[in-house]
Every structure is written in C-alpha cells, then in structure tokens.
Amino acid sequence: MPKKRRPLSELEQTADFISRHIGPDESQKRQMLRALNLPSMDALIQRAVPDSVRSRGGLPLASTHTEKDALDYIRKISSENDLKKSLIGLGYHNTVTPAVLRRRVLENPGWYTAYTPYQPEIAQGRLEGLVNFQQMIMDLTGMELANASLLDEGTAAAEAMTLIRRQTKKKQSQRFLVADDVHPQTIAVMRTRARPLGITVEVDEPRNFGDKDAFGVLVQYPGTYGDVEDHSEVVKKIHDNGGLVAVASDPLALTLLTPPGEWGADVVVGNSQRFGVPMGYGGPHAAFFATHEKYKRSVPGRIIGVSVDVNGNPAMRMALQTREQHIRREKATSNICTAQTLLANMAAFYACWHGPEGLTTIATRVHRLTGILATGLEQLGFELANHTFFDTLTINAGDEAEAILYRARDRGFNLRLIDSERIGVALDETVERYEIEELWRAFAGRNEIGMRAAEMDAVASDGIPNRLKRTSAFLTHEVFNSYHTETEMLRYLHRLARRDIALDRSMIPLGSCTMKLNAASEMEPISWPRFASLHPFVPREQARGYMRMIRELETMLARLTGFHSVTMQPNSGAQGEYTGLLMIRAYHESRGEAHRDVVLIPTSAHGTNPASAKMAGCEVQLVDCAENGDVDLDDLKAKAEKHSSRLAGLMITYPSTHGVFEQAISEICELIHSHGGQVYMDGANLNALLGVAYPAEFGADVCHFNLHKTFCIPHGGGGPGVGPVGAAKHLAPYMPGHPFEPSVGGEDAIGPVTATPWGSAGILPISWMYITLMGAEGLQQATETAILNANYLAKRLSEGYPILYTGDTGFVAHECIVDTRVLQDEAGITADDVAKRLIDYGFHAPTMSWPVPGTFMIEPTESENKAEIDRFCDAMLRIREEARKVASGEWPRDDNPLVNAPHTEAGVTADTWPHPYSRRVAAYPDPSLKADNYFPPVARVDNAYGDKHLVCSCPPVEAYRDAAE
Ligand SMILES: *Cc1c(COP(=O)(O)O)cnc(C)c1O
C-alpha cells in the first residue's frame, strides 16, 4: 500500500482526487449547511449519527494524492503478474475483444454507469442489447427461452439444479446426478448450494445415470476433458424416469455442435466469456441460462421481454417481475439481483460483430487447429484420451506429464495438469499455427519435430461425430447480420447508448444503489492485459500482482469496517448475504447447534435478504417496523424469545433502508447475541458509515459490502458487482474455500460460492484505486458529504412532500424517503406518474415503492454537487405544482402532463396536439434544458401486456407492431 499522506504540494493540490470525486466544493457545502441551520459539518454528523455508533478513532489507511501516482503504483503491481498464454480451458478462454467494443462499450460510461433497467423508457438501448443476448443464447442452445445473464457458470448450474427440483415430477427424490466430466469448480459450487437444501449431489459417469433414482442430472457438452458425447440415450432414460436434464455447454462449440435443445435438454447453462470478454482472473463474465417456455415463471434472474408502449409501439422491459425476490421474498425463485448486464451486452455485441458466419469461421478454425494439434501429438507418439473433441484435448502423458507442463511454461504456455499423468490443452481464437508447433516441441521435449502445422490441414482429424454436427441455422435475425463494419457497429452502439439515461447524462438518485462517480482513473487498470488477460487458474506465482492487490484491498476493507477478515469471492451483494449466512450456520454447527436455523428479518429489508436466507436452508421470521421506521423492539424481543433455541441470527441493514441510523443498533445486536444468534449486517448502505462508524464495533458479526455501490465499481446497467464479506474473528474460519486454491478460505471453510477463488477479480482494481485515492480523510469527507447532500435534498423537498422517518433529531442518513402519496390523494397522481414525468425533466427516477409503497427513496451520493441536486429538487417541486393544477381542475385527471409522461419527440412534434397543456410544457418543462433535452424513444410502457404476450426474443420489429393492433 502507498505511504501515509504528506501535506499536499502546490501541484498536488491542483490534481487532488478527493476534490474531483466529491461534488460540492467548500462554498456549496457552507450554503447547504446554512440551509439546514447548522454551523458546521461536525454539527451535522453529531445530529445525524447516533453517539453510540460514532467511532472515535481515525482510520489507519494510506493513500496517494493524485490519479497519476495511484496509476503508477497499480501499474507496478500489475507488472508482477506474469502474462503467459493460458490454454488451461476449464471454461475460460483467451478471446479477442473487438477494439470497437472495448472503446465503445467496456470503456464507455454511457454503457457502464447505467443502472438495472427498472425504468424501461430510459433503458431501451441496454434492453435491446439484452434481448440480443437472450436471442443469441436461445439460438445457440436450441432452447425456447433464455434469461439476461447469471453470475457465473457454477452458480448457473446450481440454479439449473434448483429449477429442476421445482419443476420435476419426481418430488420424492433428493438426489441430483452430475456427470464426472463436468468442470470440477462447477461441481464444487453445486455441492455448496445443494447441502443446505437437503439435496445430495452424486458424481458418476453418465452411462450409469439410468439405473439410479434421481430428480435430475447435469451433463457437460463438450466435457471438461474435451469429449463431445451423444447424451440422447441418457436424456431418454432420465425423462422416462420422470427426471429432468440440465446441460452445461460452451457457446462457441455450439456453432458447430447439435444444440442440446435438439437432443432433449430441459435447461442449458454456460459462460459467454469467450465471446469477447476478457478472463480477468476469474470474472466478471455473463453466465447464461436457457430452458423451456413452460418454466418461464421459475427461471432465476431477469428476463427481458418485448411489450408495447401506450401508443402501441414495441418497447422492451423486464418481464415477469412478479417472480423476483423484491416481490416474492422468501418464496422467490432465486436471490439474483445484480447480475452481469454489461458483460452480457459485450458478448451479444461480439455476436453482432462477427455474425453467424464469422462465429462459425472462428469455431471451425479453433476446431481445425485442435485437430492438427491432435494429429501431430499422435505422430509424436502421444496417446490421446479423447477422440471426439471441439477445442480441448486430454493427453495421457504418463510420468512425463509434469515435465511437459514445465516445458510448455518455458515456451510461454500454461496447460492444465489434470492429474499426475494427464495433461489438458484447450485452444481458442487467439491461437496461431506457430503456437501449435511450439506445443509439439514442448510435448516432444526437443526443437526438431519434423512437422509443419501449416501443411497439415488435410490430415487434421475431425473431432465432431457426424451425428452431432450442427445442421440448424442460428443468429439469422437482422441484428446479427447488419453490423459487420466498424462504421456500422460504432453507430449502432452509439444509437443504443443515446436512448438511455446513465450517469453521463444526469444524476441517478436511486436510493440504496449509491450511484456515485465511477472515475475514469479507477476504470483504467481493468483494461490492462496484465489484469484483464489472466486465466483464473494460472499458477499462483504468475499472479503475484493480483495477490498483492487483493491482499491490500482485503486489508483496506477490514480496516474500514473493523472486521477481522474479508473474502472477495462473492460476486454480488446477494451472493455475499448467502455466504455470510452459510458461515453463520457453519459456526453454529461447529458448536453442536446445527438446529439453529431461524433468521429474523425486519419487514423493511431488501428482498434479497429473505431469498438468501431460504437458499441457506433457513426459516425466515419477519420482524415489524415501528412508526418511526426503526425495527419494532418489542416485536424483535418477542420473536427472539419465541425462537430463542432455534435462533440462527438476525439480518439487519444499517443504516436502515428507511434512511435513518437507528439509535438502538447496539442494543439490538446484544439482544440477538444473548439468544445465541449471530448478527448479519447488510452493508449496502456503507456509504453512510465509512470513516464515521465501524460495523464490527457496534456488534455486527458478519457483513457484505457492495463494491458496486460504496466502492465505485460501476453498475454496468445491472451488473457486474462484487460483494465481499467481512467477518469477526470467530466466523473467520468459515470463509469460503476453493478446490483449486488451498490458500483461500478459513481452516473450516464452507465450500466455494463462486466458480473462481476470488470471484470477479478483474474489477477489484476499481475499488483499490478508489480507496487508495481517497484515503481515510477522503472517505470520511465522502461519507459526510453524502449525509449533507441527503439532508439538504430532504430539506428542500420537504417544501412539497412529507419526508418519512427523520430520526430522533430530525435528520436523515445518506438517503431519504419522500412520500408522493399526497399527490395521489389530491389529484390521483401516482408515484409512477411522478417517476415518468421526471424523465421529461431529464432525470432517472429514484427507487420506487421500496421499502414503503407509493414513495421514493432518494440517495444523491457525495458525487453530485449542489447545482445538480437543486436542479433535481426544482424538478420535483415543479411536478408538485403540476399536480396542484390537476387537483384544482385546471388540467383533467386523465389528460395532464403527469399521466401522459414521458413525452416522446414524435409525440410533441406530431401534427395534432390534443392535450390541454402546451407542447412546451410537455417537452421543456424546465426551460433551461432546451439545448440538451432528453427524449425517451418510447412512451410509457405497458407491463401487463408484455407479460400476457411473453416475447423474449428479437422478432422483426413489424411482427410485434402487428401484435399490438
Ligand atoms: C443492492 C442491495 C442488495 C443486493 O445487492 P446485489 O449486489 O444487487 O445483489 C441487498 N440489500 C440492499 C439494502 C441493497 O441495496
């Protein structure tokens, strides 16, 4: 870690990052404090943050001053990563990210700073990208329905297992069979997930499957050792027995292989990483999940569907949201909230860029080179373990195996050492013919091999059995056949990005989501090959830079929160919750109290909390909230008492989702401990605590941090995320392990929750950069400014709306709940109308109707300055005035700018204008917007229509226009 801060030099002052990250300058802060009648920031913090949680000590954190210094430093760290060509396979492959996608998507804030598309009118661009992704997956797998991504292949396989359990007719069986040639890390994640649900995962050869009683099976195609096997017999037997079949597959292989949907698969999962997404030492990448249409209500994660807007024009939005944890809570089908939207979009654009022919060419070339490699190895006297293959060979190398591995390493390649006698080699689109020759030399152990790869096309063996050669067409839609030149692609990407509101346009005041600045300098390192191009299973000595960066980040997070240890493995906040709960259960089990399985959760909790608790095998008991928004202490006491002997713990968000610091938090933690329970803190609101209070100090035992909220990893339009877990000393032994990495996890580690040891390691440099640039001083300033901004915003909005829950002292934390129900009472104007009208003002709506129905939860973050907050407040107060005009009868209740919002450009420029308000009022409600006004591409989207007529693919536009008529 860099050294402690020195006094700033003159030059450093001009380049100091803290003042670039924090929106308001000193004079704006003073103005806001004055508006709150407060003399100083200290006075505000004293009133907003209860004395009992406020920390006295400073933070022992080092930092740099400038972006240049931090980048120099992390570049040095990255240089400790040794970049070899990894042909390890195991589901991770080298890929060429088309430069146009790297610059225009991965490195473009229009794409990476957007939020999950809850407001479809301002998200049509990324929604189209996701529909492309779904279509691509449906085509490649041969299935009817695909979702818009999952976290990784391991968890996708686990989700397949649980979907099958929900859908199977064989309810009495608890056994799930997994083929012995499924990637080992996938099996390990499935075992972790199966255990708390009482499912037994049994690994065996698929040919034995038919004789066993099981509710479902998972096979892999091609297998982890490379074989391309015909599983249709297995499928038939399983189906005859009443079970269902999941298949893990590879999207590039499926351009050449008969898709699993054509031989009877019920679910197909996999990873789309090799479609242009860097390996990043483990992630993030978009996993996929495809199944039959009849299971649509049971599919985990999000499905994007095509609906219509009020004018009957096609419009996309998240379909079937009634399945989600937000609504179904402990009855949800999964706890997925943040997924992998940015990476799903990347993979889909890679398919658009290459088109079906380009992808087939890439796959054919990879397969041919594999055939050449195979033929050459046989000529050199090596025995191949597999005779069918797409891109992967397993070589029986006897006692030469290890020597070959090291010789290959000397020539710059990482191969897979399967066991002491077998070597695996997986080729990819980056491999050249001369590299095949290098591999032969490594195997032969000499330079002279007497073969030229360039001359072997004719004798290369074909690894795909005839009956498994793909005959069906795929990616025939226009979108996959139109953007093959850079000019066309550039414009397509720009066209889509222009349709959306991301942070590059205006503030996104989504409460609980912390949409703060994602600084360019923080983003830069993730594109460097020494971070981006490492395979997750390279030998540790090649990843020294990663090890150092990860260790440092763990230490920083531990110091910031007071916890003993931190794991980076969970790749979302919800995944962190799940991890923490499993650790709590393991702790109880170690003390002979495995029966402790009741988790108390306040009703104000995020929907992922109860969903995660269910996945961890717990029973959820809800605890009421009091009038003032705090946890109802009497109800908590009663429930803790009632379930005392079975109490596993409490899940509590702090500060609460009501936007206040509860006074009683320490007392609450003590109460739970006195009943033998553990306290899980949902750390999504950590942006209100850093440098001001330590969760470990006021009694939390384990907590997740959303690096994609507080620590500046961008939301990517709905992922990626990272949800590290911090734990007190007594829970540290249960930190999740990994089968390939003994150094990961505690001594009594729970199984892996993610397919790779450090989850989405590739984006950890973002948070490392943020903390390093801010240091203790900057982070404390950020927290204080976030609290100031929220209180100033609450104060201004209180002129027009009631502010719910303001703590004992009349102050909120870093977000506030604004009650829009007054408009409903007065004028029949709903929260939805206000949200859509905000679009006309150029804003993304705040978090809606959660945790209180009919309200907005607003979080400005520290990155927005006073001018932007004022602009937002002005819009909200103008909307208040507009509602008054409806209430007074000046505008009819069914025809006014609120119920008709958002207004499209086509609408306000139409030849006729039938409304009782002017076009100017519709289009330019804030006159200052004129030059930069945003128009959504569609009018208000009809959610119900789309759910009734579910379409999740890309039909030609005309097809659904007709449907609406
Ligand atoms: C965002 C959030 C979560 C879930 O985090 P993901 O990373 O989206 O899985 C959980 N709880 C709260 C309070 C949140 O705001």
Automatic annotation (TrEMBL):
SUPFAM superfamilies: PLP-dependent transferases (SSF53383). Residues 782-903 form the Glycine dehydrogenase C-terminal domain. Its EC number is 1.4.4.2. GO terms for molecular function: glycine binding; glycine dehydrogenase (decarboxylating) activity; pyridoxal phosphate binding. Residues 20-443, 454-737 form the Glycine cleavage system P-protein N-terminal domain. The keyword Cytoplasm does not apply. Its cofactor is pyridoxal 5'-phosphate. The glycine cleavage system catalyzes the degradation of glycine. The P protein binds the alpha-amino group of glycine through its pyridoxal phosphate cofactor; CO(2) is released and the remaining methylamine moiety is then transferred to the lipoamide cofactor of the H protein. This is Glycine dehydrogenase (decarboxylating). The gene is gcvP.
